[in-house]
Design a protein that fits this description.
A hairpin with a 2-residue loop joins strand 3 and strand 4. It is built from 13 helices and 14 strands. The strands form 3 sheets. Strands 1, 3, 4, 5, 6, 7, 8, 9, 11 and 12 form a 10-stranded mixed sheet that branches. A two-stranded antiparallel ribbon has the order 2-10. The chain has a two-stranded antiparallel sheet with strand order 13-14. It folds into 2 domains: 186 residues, no CATH class; 205 residues, no CATH class. By secondary structure, it is an alpha+beta fold. It starts with a helix and ends with a helix. The mean pLDDT is 82. InterPro entries: ABC3_permease_C, MacB_PCD, Macrolide_Exporter_MacB. It is found in: Cell membrane. This is FtsX-like permease family protein. GO terms for molecular function: transmembrane transporter activity.
Length: 414
């Protein structure tokens, strides 16, 4: 039942001690505010890292080579390791069931591209059709390369929206002839990339065509793969790590590289890197939880101390109530209700302010590895209710102490 007289007493007590109540409420509200903001930025870090990995396939494995750093089997260090078609064919055949997408890459850096009177320097890359999915590219017009282009060594090219805007302006580029380092190629598609202009500073041709036209022989610059999906993240990491290790061992054996030479063959495993980043973010979030909860505990302790002071100040009043026949539980309820009210009001105030701040400023925050800081509303609400429960516990002990005061002792209190 709603007891208006009890609420009047609570508000009278608050009015008499405005500053004390305000400071107590502020400590509770700041605890919730700090916790929600910290959790929001923890989620923002996870969003930022996820966005970084979304630019390419999240389960991508990327291989490149450099010079050897150690002598091995009579061969001196300083040899540049050059991968070839045989390496790619062996790996794609042996691990056909484990691989989802695969492509070798042949690069022509800083190639001059011309269309009529327009020209520009862009990267020219020979790739396989699967490369579209490895790079998470979206076709805006036309099509990507296909296996027929590879088999027939077709002189076709896929350009980016950046290249289209810079060379073609408003003109439709599909089926137009583009000159790559003075050689004619027909445009079959226009792609866009989540990575932005930096990733769109490239055009793609069939790798067989690139190797033949640009004197590449059977050389390849990079190998790129993605693994088949697994049941869960941990199994996916295990499978990609196993493949990466076997891939590196094979390439070192094939090119006569010392097993402990870490400078010649490099394998980047995106899933393994993602796991490291996510583990780091999870540890940071745990630290944020720790800091936020400690702040909340400080606020709850403040509530408990204030209730002890209130009980001490109202000792005579409580003694009179007991002398007039008041039972212990109504006295406990009176003190407890004030404690819960201050805690709940302050907690929800801190929650609303922090959630509103994240909602207003979160989408506009542009910081490296932090994207749209936000917090799960259900988690935030649960935290507030836990805080209210803690406030009730904090108020119970002073209330219980008040209920146990003997009337004669309370009436003697000054």
């Amino acid at each position: 039942m709603f007891d208006i007289e009890r609420w009047q007493e609570i508000f009278d007590t608050i009015r008499k001690n405005k500053l004390r109540t305000f400071l107590t409420g502020l400590s509770v509200a700041s605890g919730i505010f700090i916790l929600v903001i910290l959790l929001g930025f923890g989620q923002g870090m996870r969003n930022g890292i996820q966005a970084e990995f979304e630019a390419d396939a999240t389960n991508r494995i990327w291989v490149w080579t450099q010079v050897t750093t150690k002598e091995h089997k009579g061969l001196n260090p300083g040899r540049f390791v050059v991968m070839n078609n045989e390496n790619y064919d062996y790996l794609t055949t042996k691990y056909n069931k484990e691989l989802e997408y695969k492509s070798s890459i042949f690069r022509i850096r800083g190639g001059l591209i011309n269309y009529k009177k327009e020209s520009g320097n862009y990267g020219i890359q020979g790739v396989s059709p699967d490369y579209q999915f490895i790079e998470n590219q979206k076709m805006e017009e036309g099509r990507f390369l296909n296996y027929r282009d590879l088999e027939e060594v077709n002189k076709v090219v896929v350009i980016s929206t950046k290249v289209k805007n810079e060379l073609f302006k408003e003109e439709d580029p599909i089926d137009k002839i583009l000159q790559l380092s003075g050689i004619n190629f027909k445009i079959v598609g226009v792609y866009s990339d989540e990575g932005g202009e930096r990733e769109e500073n490239r055009v793609f041709v069939p790798i067989t065509t690139a190797q033949r036209v640009f004197n590449g022989g059977n050389r390849v610059a990079n190998l790129s793969f993605t693994m088949q999906p697994e049941e869960n993240f941990e199994k996916a990491v295990q499978a990609s790590n196993k493949f990466s290790a076997e891939l590196e061992t094979y390439l070192k054996q094939f090119h006569t590289v010392a097993p402990d030479d870490n400078g010649a063959v490099h394998v980047f495993n995106a899933l393994d890197e993602a796991k490291r980043y996510y583990t780091l973010v999870d540890n940071i979030k745990l630290f944020f939880w720790f800091v936020g909860i400690c702040t909340i505990i400080a606020g709850v302790v403040g509530v408990s101390n204030i209730m002890l002071i209130i009980v001490k100040e109202r000792t005579r009043e409580i003694g009179i109530r007991k002398a007039l026949g008041a039972k212990p539980w109504p006295i406990i309820g009176m003190i407890l209700q004030e404690s819960v009210f201050v805690t709940a009001f302050s907690g929800f105030g801190g929650l609303i302010f922090s959630m509103g701040l994240l909602e207003l400023l979160g989408p506009n925050i542009e910081v490296d590895y932090i994207v749209n800081p936000s917090v799960n509303f259900q988690v935030a609400m649960t935290t507030v209710f836990v805080l209210i429960f803690a406030g009730a516990v904090a108020g119970f002990f002073p209330a219980w102490r008040a209920a146990r005061i003997k009337p004669i002792v309370a009436l003697r209190d000054e």
